[in-house]
Amino acid sequence: MSYILRAALAATLLASPFTSAYAADTTPREPYGIALEGFAYPYPVHLLPVINDGEQLSMAYMDVAPERPNGRTIVLLHGRNFPSSYWAPVIKMLSDAGFRVIVPDQIGFGKSSKPQGELHFDTLARNTIALLNHLKIDKAEVIAHSLGGMLGVRIARAYPERVAHLVLTAPIGLEDYRLYVPPTPTEKIIESEDKLTPDGYRKQLQTNYAIKLPPDAITPFVDARFNIKGSPDYPRWLRAYVSSGQMIYREPVAHEVALITEPTLFIMGADDHNAPGRPNAPEALRAKMGQNAELARALAAKMPNARAEVIPDTGHLVFLEAPEKYKELVLGFLGR
């Protein structure tokens, strides 16, 4: 086969839909900074200076104004394994409905600073309220996903006067993982996470989150995680990332959820059985973990003003997997 023919065949394979989804996992990676420098966000990013445990840090956020304001503001709280840019279709949906949309990256995540100290939900809650104060927002609707759901619970419990409605989208933390999973030393988790490959991480996302999206849609999440490995500050990012996992384990909110008095809507994917730490639990207990739709229904029944909606044939990324149903539920709940 001539050189030209071989080159043409290679170009055709790289361009095919069956290989393009995994190109990011097999080609050399252009390093991102640990504040995701080099990774595009859908709207301008601003920085708010904050001090956490004596350390000066910067909290990144997007502030999206609607063309026809309805006078209300929504705060979106992201999950652990996702930069806040993944909210892009929800931002547009809410902005089109007239809401101002505030989308922070929590400290330790996305384009925000990676601290030297440990992460704590109380600190992240204070930072979020500091952002609202900075923007002169007295009260907001809160829409949270995954780990953001745990933070949303903390905010609603600590600052109920600042929350108008709470939407918990496929939240984790509806059970206390300490009842199933033994504690794991931070250094052991760092070692394990550092050995993870891009392909391994992709499979982990697809398995743990039962994602119903094409492979190309998962690639940005893989890029956001692995393109930073070339950064000289990568060890600091890795320690912050592992600290967020320890925060989930050490600071449960499951016992507080039923105490929330603000109007609350759980939106769950029927196939989402995500349970952080499950592989480290005794085998006999693993099947009991991650019954998230059932947990949401049970908690909503105990709350004074809550309900749970379960979307069939969807996993953890419900707002990307079932956007029209998600829009119907959210806007209906918020009175739109």
Jot down its keywords.
eight-stranded mixed beta sheet, 14 helices, 8 strands, disordered N terminus, alpha/beta, 336 residues
Q: How would you describe this structure to a colleague?
A:
With 336 residues, the protein is α/β, with parallel strands linked by helices. The chain is built from 14 helices and eight strands. Strands 1-2-4-3-5-6-7-8 form an eight-stranded mixed sheet, with helices on both faces. The longest helix is centred in the C-terminal third of the chain and has 17 residues. The termini are far apart. The N terminus is likely disordered.
Sheet with the most strands? 8 strands, mixed
Strand content: 15-25%
Number of helices: 14
Please tell me the overall pLDDT: 92
Q: How many angstroms separate the termini?
A: 63 Å
- Bulk shape: globular
Instruction: Write down the oligomeric state.
Output: single chain
Secondary-structure-derived class: alpha/beta
Helical content class? 40-55%
- For the secondary structure, the number of strands is 8
What string gives the helices and strands in order? HHHEEEHEHEHEHHHHEHHEHH
**Radius of gyration from the CA trace?**
20 Å
Q: What strand line-up does the widest sheet have?
A: 1-2-4-3-5-6-7-8
Question: What ranges have pLDDT less than 50 throughout 5 or more consecutive residues?
Answer: 1-25
